[in-house]
Amino acid sequence: MPDVRGIDRVFDYSLPELPGPPVTVGTSVRVPLHGRRVAGWVVATDVEPPAGVRLLPVRAVRGIGPAAEVVELARWAAWRWAGPMVPFLVTASPPRLVPSLPPPGRPPDRGGPAPPPSGPVAEALSAGRAVLRLPPAAARSGVVRAVGACLQPGRSVLVVCPSTEDAERVARLLARDGVPVARLPEQWAEAAAGGRVVVGARAGAWGPAPGLVAALVLDGHDQAHVEERAPTWNAWEVVAERCARAGAPCVVTSAVPTLELLRWGRLVVYPRAEERAGWPAVEVVDLRTRDPRSGLLTEDLARFLRRVGAEPGRPAVCVVNRRGRARLLACTGCGELVRCHVCDGAMVQPRGAEELCCPACSATRPPLCPACGSTRLAVVRPGVTRLAEELAALTGLPAAEISTDRAEGAEDAAIIAGTEAALHRLRRAAGVAFLELDQELTAPRHRAGEATLALLARAARLLGGRSRPLLLQTRLPDHEVVTAVVGADPGRWTAVEEPRRRALALPPFSAMALISGPDVATASAGLAARGLETAPAGAGDSWLVRAADHQVLCDALAEVRAGGADVRIEVDPLRA
Question: What is the pTM of this model?
């Protein structure tokens, strides 16, 4: 398989005697192709070439590459996410050439077998494939140590984290316990030698782990596990498939498991008191009952910030989606949000249109308030241009702003105002306030509630338990996401969301893909002819494709790719 963009096929070569490591499936080599030498991977050996074909020889052995089982995993992933094999093989390869491997790691000598784990962690490991609902503020060290204790001489344990920072913390924790660790991608060769706990971020799902005996994925709900570029693979699904092939247990932790996770593995929960202790105390402000002239800066918010914003080293965080994902409409009479009668998303009124339209499911209806029948609807502005300055004036406390590209004066501020990026940049907070939660709850995508719940779980981790509060300003105080967080019980969201998705045939009760590109019209017509459901996906040249399951969807997409259509394919799109 040549490492050449635009070429997604294998070529046969003869193999002469060459210096370097033995050539096996996965070995990185250099071969002639169209008059030049290119790098590539051996994906099969002892192949019978077509009759009458003169084979060119492999020119050089570059180094050790992915193991044979990882090459087969890449072949499966290319089908599952409708893309070429090369991106997966690149991710699975070492960042630098590896001519040989070091000795395998040696697990610590504890004078006997390690004590078996107990409680929910033991239950999760014994289940084979399990979703451990770990409260957001609970320490993850116990789970990491328990899975790391599964390490055996010459074998491997795999731990995949949502970020490089998390991976570094996990690696340090295990190293302090004397457990041999290989941190990816820097210690790829050590990981390939075996006898170590292999730790990495999203790409770690493809790291070398010979003799895999157990795997752990932290925060499986986190969208950081999903590759944004096509093919849009998901790390926890790759690890789960890898464990299934190796016959090894796979544990995925999540404070707020997605429906996909819940359908995949057995749910294991902590005792009710422990789970409640891992969530903050929640205060809900019903914006429908507040003076609309105060906007987002309510008196409730001011009291909240004055109460929690004076703790040294722990700022109060105010989260608002300043850039906005949708324009919310609210009734000026009763304050109710205008939501879709089909999917519960926010409805908008396009410029010049006489009807309301749902960007998520395309449902339409007259521009009336669903609660009181009023025709007086106003756009709710979720963003505040000078939010930090206004918060400082409101409370008398120093405030700063954090967003994806700005973080000015955050070190000395008592109040941090900004986008959700603030929740990822900070390590702790005295309190977190969501000034306009409805912007997230009613976003025009079927995963809006799921994404909002994950965002609130992230805030809960910063707060560290019930001693520090979370404030939610919303016009939807009875929304299932809000009640789930108030009750410290993600199952309340699941109980409402699962039947809704089932009724609407949305994932995980169907399989979806988003296709775009120059040949999208031809490709969508071909998919429709195969019996798949296709529909335009908003503005632009994107089309949404839906099938009963991934087997049907991915087989059909493989035929589209084999036909040479110039399209970009996102399987399981997050933004649909």
Answer: 0.88
